[in-house]
Write a structure and sequence with these properties.
Number of domains: 3
Shape: elongated
Bound molecules: adenosine-5'-diphosphate, magnesium ion, zinc ion
Structural class: alpha+beta
Helix content: 25-40%
Low-confidence stretches: none
Strand order of the largest sheet: 2-6-7-10-1-11-12-13-14
Strand content: 15-25%
Largest sheet: 9 strands, mixed
Number of helices: 16
Length: 476
């Protein structure tokens, strides 16, 4: 029996206005190589200057994960030759990172939390992009010098599920902090997965392989499963030492396998040395104050929803899994929904409809204020739950957000007036005298029949609670 050991390195592109060491914009550019300057093109004599906004965003991440935020950190050069890197080195933080010794908690199936250690998070400059068109290759340096925060975990995960839970929590956290848009398809949240196995009970770690640049949570899980199987088979076949060695592999999406890309460079291959052009990054009190401006994070929200709103833990975890959903929920509460109804209407009614239409919550055609108001119409008995669903369906397809007008238009106003409901009840009892007699002689099940008839005659508009009460009065 083997145990899986996983450590993750995640590159998060920080959403600063300008690049890490120059004033070039990081925004989308219409053409290649226009967001460039002598510094990010590595022209001789151009000097880098650290971007304060990037430092503050890295620090904010540090405070969010209970890490040490170093008031003095330094930059190093990591040498490698590749056309997308005009400097022929990457500026990174090897010797003293801005953030060290953090932690993130993931929620396990059984309801408990597990701590995943974060060794460090360091600032580094992104490379440009090589573009291959047939026999010609071109280089676009618009992205060169964009700030990245590389977040390195401890080898603390023991399954693909734990690795994915960690990635999702990290993804949500950087989005709550608003330090990155963390769009995986566009490459602003990229992940390298380190995987090894060891016989259960053995303390020493096995040999790890690194799988580079996987861009979806699903592929992470698949790549880990494949790699664990490959390593386990090698072990069982007695060829572990030959087939599992420290190397970099790639996930081949089409074939569903990992493939060798290159032997892992040793640190010496990169010839790391302190960047002589950059002085140490010293943080000021003002930067610390700015970095500590912290939104409420998912763990704190879950706790507050459970303790103050009476939300069930599973629901609180679903709602806080991304910030848009949590903000939507809180906005509904501000507009008249009670927590319990808001949970159901958000997680099943709205999300159900959005998922069907492949729309994300940010782009929901019905906003939280409108949904909150709609729910308050159920709570004050203006319409039934069924009626509210009809209104929501209507709004998913139409522009109007005038809830009262829609309720009128669809004829959904709920009848709660005793007199009107009693009139219907009396009519139905009069038309079904045999059934009334059977009911009175003990056939209790017929009660449901009478309720059904009243709802039918009222075309669903009668308040079901009222119908129950009044029917009981009349029959007993
Ligand atoms: P390097 O500097 O060579 O990239 P690190 O020590 O920084 O190596 O580790 C890189 C990543 O690999 C970290 O996320 C770490 O948790 C993970 N890791 C280290 N050893 C193992 C192992 N035996 N199995 C799985 N992951 C590992
Ligand atoms: Mg590393
Ligand atoms: Zn530049």
């Amino acid at each position: 029996m083997f145990e899986t050991v996983i450590g993750l390195e995640v590159h998060v592109q920080l959403n600063t206005k300008t690049k890490l060491f120059c004033a070039c914009p990081t925004s989308f550019a219409e053409h290649q190589n226009i967001n460039t300057c002598p510094t990010c093109l590595a022209l001789p004599g151009a000097l880098p200057v650290v971007n304060k906004e990037a430092a503050i965003k890295a620090m904010r991440f540090g405070y969010a994960i209970n890490a040490d935020v170093n008031h003095r950190s330094t930059f190093d050069r990591k040498s490698y030759f590749y056309p997308d890197s005009p400097m022929a080195y990457q500026i990174t933080q090897l010797h003293k990172a801005i953030v060290q010794n953090g932690e993130l908690f993931i929620d396990l199936e059984d309801g408990s939390q597990k701590r995943i250690g974060i060794t460090q998070a360091h600032l580094e400059a992104d490379a440009g992009k090589n573009m291959h068109e047939g026999a010609i290759s071109k280089v676009d340096l618009n992205r060169a010098g964009t700030p990245l925060l590389e977040i390195v975990s401890q080898p603390d995960m023991r399954s693909a599920d734990e690795a994915v839970a960690y990635l999702k929590k990290l993804h949500a956290t950087v989005r709550y902090l608003d330090i990155s848009d963390a769009n995986m398809q566009e490459g602003s949240f990229r992940c390298d997965v380190n995987v090894s196995i060891r016989p259960k009970g053995q303390e020493a770690y096995g040999t790890r392989v690194e799988i580079k640049n996987i861009n979806s949570f699903r592929f992470v899980a698949q790549a880990i499963a494949y790699e664990v199987q490959r390593q386990t088979e090698a072990y069982e076949d007695g060829v572990y030492d030959q087939e599992v060695y420290q190397e970099t592999r790639l996930w081949d999406v089409a074939k569903g396998v990992t493939k060798s890309m290159r032997g892992k460079e040793e640190a010496a291959d990169y010839r790391y040395f302190p960047d002589p052009d950059l002085r140490a990054l010293i943080v000021t009190d003002e930067m610390i104050d700015e970095a500590k401006k912290m939104p409420e994070l998912p763990d704190a929200k879950v706790k507050r929803y459970i303790e103050e709103l009476g939300t069930k833990k599973e629901d609180a975890l679903v709602i806080t899994a991304n910030k848009e959903m949590a903000y939507y929920f809180e906005e509904m509460l501000k507009h008249g929904a009670t927590p319990k109804t808001a949970v159901t209407w958000l997680t099943s009614e709205l999300l159900g409809r959005l998922n069907k239409a492949s729309i994300s919550i940010e782009n929901s055609p019905v906003d939280a204020k409108t949904l909150g108001e709609l729910i308050s119409k159920i709570e004050d008995d203006t319409i039934s739950g069924k009626g509210a669903k009809d209104v929501l369906d209507f709004m998913m397809e139409n522009e109007s957000r005038d809830i009262n007008a829609i309720i009128d238009q669809l004829g959904l106003v709920q009848v709660s007036d005793d007199g009107a409901i009693l009139a219907i009840i009396d009519e139905i009892l009069a038309n079904n005298q045999e059934k009334v007699a059977e009911y009175k002689s003990g056939k209790d099940k017929l009660f449901g029949f009478f309720v059904g008839q009243v709802m039918k005659v009222s075309k669903g508009s009668a308040n079901p609670g009222k119908v129950n009460d009044l029917l009981k009065q009349r029959l007993d």
